[in-house]
Structure formats: structure tokens, C-alpha cells
Amino acid sequence: MNARPNRFETNADGWEGPGGPQDLYFTRDESWPYPRMVRADNIYLYDENGTQFIDASSGPIASNLGHNNRRVIEAMKAQLDKYPFNTIRLARSDENIALAERLAAFAGAGFERPFFVSGGSEANEAAIQFARQWAFAHGDVERKRLFSLMPSYHGGTICAQMLSGDDAVAPIFEGMTTMPERIEAPLTYRPPDGLTQEQNEDRICEHFEARIQALGPETCLALFMEPVGGLATGANVLSGRFLKRMREICTKYGLLMVLDEVMSGAGRSGKFLTTHHHGDDCKPDLVVLAKGIGSGYIPLGIMLAPARMVDELSGLTGFNYGHTSNANPLACAVGLATLEELDERKLIENAASTGAYLKERMRALAETCPIIGDVRGLGLLQATEIVADKQSKRTFSSDAKAPDTLRTMALDYGLSLYARRTNNGRYGDWVMTSPPLITTPDQVDEMVDRFEQLFTAFTDAMVRGGEAVA
Length: 470
Fold this sequence. Notes:
By secondary structure, the chain is α/β, with parallel strands linked by helices. The chain has 13 helices and 14 strands. The strands form three sheets. Strands 4-10-9-8-7-5-6 form a seven-stranded mixed sheet, with helices on both faces. The protein is globular, with a radius of gyration of 22 Å.
């Protein structure tokens, strides 16, 4: 492997002089060789030396359209030539109206009213506040308790961090805001001993209902879940059966059910919304989108709500949550161009078919690779779990720093990967294998070939270090 410079390019104390790249804020334990990217096209990134990398994780599962998409770029230029900004408190914009109409058509019945913000954390915050405003306006003033799955991830603001299920982060901010109730996620790779997946789902649903009863239904506000997880669960997929049962419990006790589709939405799962894979008996009250809807070209997040709820609330108290960039016309222009690309190029259908092929190739690789424990996901939202011992499913020790080691080594095989240890490795280690929605089968072959070389080298390194069983 080629030697690459450390991100601290001057001395052990850090960057010399003022300024410096933002990764200087990261812990020194993440001191890995960050390449300097200077251009990108399609699914490829290029550093200052001209080295090509496959964007195998779409950045942080954001670049759904890949890089240098001309329709999006031209839409941005056209909007800038018109005007870049106005505030929804003072004026409407054609871009806001057009995107809302098109988005409602994609999302379908029950999601007619989009609320536009600047990203996923903000969209989840909007959903929390909307749920609370809805309850308060209807006299349910004691409904304040939130539920989420453990593990999970819902954003980087303090409230969204606390909503997330990550024991490594929670102690830092505990006491700064109310802790949610955590319900065990039905992880498919390591269900409790002696239980089938369905039995485990039933156990979790029973626990959820029991917690509502113990706390008092009149105090319980909403349940947040990722239908397909991101880095917190390694693309763990919630079954339609599980979602249906959780929907029934929420309806029975008056909780709102919110699906966080920041990663899985906007076509990545092979449907525009992951909830479209399931029937109406699984339908959430609110859906949160971000990442792919702006596709990395501009910050954009969305809360989708039913017209009946929004229109009723506006007649009671209104929903007055807002920020400077709500429904920003430039962001809306990008969102509209993204939807046009998804539609005209049939990229949602491509996510389904190419995703199936990617999973087939990665699972074939897992058959011969001793450190690949599981390949899972839906559409082009997938992850590959790495293990120290395939037979026992034993995870790597913290000393191995397996995800960081893997992504560092990946640079030498032309792969840019999204991988880091969450929950201190309590639930496992994985790398997101989630390329842009424009990826072709030939590009899948190219990517998997590089993964094969990477996993061979990584396995050798882990075995030599006494961390893995060959």
C-alpha cells in the first residue's frame, strides 16, 4: 500500500498557523489520511494527484445523483440569475410551490404538505415540534414523551442527538434536554439467542406497549424509527410486519408514528419512500427526508405531513416553527431538478435493480471472505458488516479500530467509504456500501472488484494483528 500523509500535515500539535481544514476538530484517534478532492464526475472522485476513487457510500449517503449533474447545476444557475433568496415570512416563491406540488405527487396520499428546512437534523426537530404543537392544540398538554429505537440515529443537534440511540454520545448531553424512551431495535443479524426474527419483533412490540401503559398513554407523544437504518445499525431493515404492529400500537394509544427517511427516502430504497414498500396499514403520520433530496448539491430537508393535520392545525394555533432558510428558493430549485432526474432517468427503478445486483455480488464475496459477517439493506442503501470471527459473529476489539482502518486502507484501492464505529462497537462494525442511484451494473462490478482486493488486505492485517480468525 502507498504511504499517505497524516491529516496533521505540519507537526504533532496540529495545523500550523490560523485556519485549517474542519477535520482539525475531530479527535486525534481519527487521524487518518484525508485526501484532498479537487473534482468529481458521475460516481467518481479525484484528488489533487489525479487519483480516482469510487464514491462507494455516496459521501454520507447523500450524493444520490452522483457528481456534476448538469440538470441540477443549470437549475442552480438559473435560480441565481432570477434571485437567490426570499423569506417565507414575507413572500411566496414559485420554486416553493412547484417543488411542494411535485413532491406531494411522488409521496402520495397522506403526505400532501411538505415543510422545507435545511437538513435532516432540522427536519427531525420540525417533526418533534409539529407533534408537540398538534397535541397541545388538541388539549393533550401532558403528551411530551418521545420513543426511538436503540440503536438509531436522527441528527446532530442536541435534541436530535438525544433522540438517537447511541450510548457513546448520550452521556455528553444528558440533562441538557429530556431523554427519550429507548425501545430495542429488531436487529436482523444478531437476534437474541433462541428467538426467531418474528419472535424477537413480537417481544419488542410487547415491550413498547408495556412502556406506554406504565408511563401513561396521556404522556406519550411520538415514536421515531428509521425503516432502513444508516450508520447506527448498518442498514438494518425493519420488516413490514414489525412496522404494522408498531403502527397499531401508536394508533391505539394516540402516539404519532414518524419515519426518519433521511437516508432511505428520495428513491434510495427502490421506492420514493420506504413506506411505499408496505401497505397503508404501516403508513406513518409524518415522514422526514433530507440528504438525497438535495443530493449533496445544497442543504435541504423536508417534513412530510398529511393535509388534514396541517390544515386543521393552521385553524387552531398554526405551526410557527421556522428558520431563515425555510423553503429557500435556491434549495427548492435543486429539489425540483432532483425529482425530475429521478423521474426521467428512472433512477428509483435503477436503485431497486442495481441494488439487488450489488447485494448479490457482495453476498458472493462474503461466501469466501472470512471477515464479512453480513450483507444487508434495501435498494442502494446497503451495508457490509465486518467481524473478527464469522462463526461466532464476534465483533472486533476497540483497539483494532476496524472501521477506521478499513476506510483508510480503502483509499489505496480507489474507494471512498463511509464507516466509523458507533455505540463503541456494541452492535458491530460495518461499512456503508451505498453508491449513487446512477450506478450501473458495470460500475458495481468495478466497485466489488476493488472491495475484494480491500477485504483481502484488511483480513491479512487483522489476522496478523491477532484481531481476526482466518
